[in-house]
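Below is how a single chain appears once it has passed through the pipeline. First comes the sequence as given, then the structure the pipeline wrote out for it. We keep one example in the README because the format questions we get most often are answered faster by looking than by reading.
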Amino acid sequence: MESSVRGAASPLLDPQARALLDLLVERGIPPIHTQGVPEARAAYRERRALTQPDPPQVGAVFDESLSHEGATIGLRIYRPADSDGTLPALVYYHGGGWTIGDLETHDTLCRSLCAQAGIGVVSLAAFDHAIASATRWGFDASRTAVGGDSSGGNLAAAVALARRTAAVPPAFQLLIYPATTMRTKAPSHHAFSQGYLLTHDDMLWFIGNYMGPDSDLDDPRASPLLARDHAGAASALVLTAGFDPLVDDGRAYADTLSAAGVPTQYVCFARQLHGFITMGRVIDEANTAVTLCASALRAALNRG
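Resulting structure:
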């Protein structure tokens, strides 16, 4: 049953998205917040075969790692086919509630953005390392964007704010249904709290895993929507899904960037669920969204 906030003229959930939800119920897939972290990570990885399209071919893919404060972070670098010389690039932060997800869960999406935008892609969690390594990878540091989906969109937005005055700031930000505040108070958090894949309880579980019990939920590094000033941030494309607890937060962030004078485009896929952009095997609009994102990246990073 559709949410009561939807009027007669409002869009209904995409039939393909509804079919996916029905299939998950039929298979008895447990909610994420009821699982342990290892089980949730494994389940998220295994669902790729059900929903993701076949990974497209690109020119080259290679893995590296970096060490930071005693931790080893994996990263994956993609170059498009038939690419010579120095390329613009995207540093991509994968979604998964700061808890699940990895290089494999977002490999197909990163390959698709690489191939369709004709840019290099770095899948990892370290913008400064990517800038420092750009020349070695054949990328143009001055034309390097940040992007991500869900929790990855949160990280990308935070990096775009934190590094806007850096010697080499992000050139663009691609925010796909981003979590822009740790405060789950917007109307959409309640309108779509249950029954639309990402639930309110899932969000509280993810935030608890990321922030811990004594953290400041209003810290703009975690809640970029609450930053005092957004002026000077990189231009942005903010993409949301209409049946998503995070839709109001994403739209609010786009409006906040625009009010601060940041060139911002906002697109809502009104009939879609949170997480849909990786589901091109079963949701056609996911492939449309990927192409839209690739087009925006190509246009933004090839100016001048």
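The radius of gyration is 18 Å.

See the next section for the split statistics.
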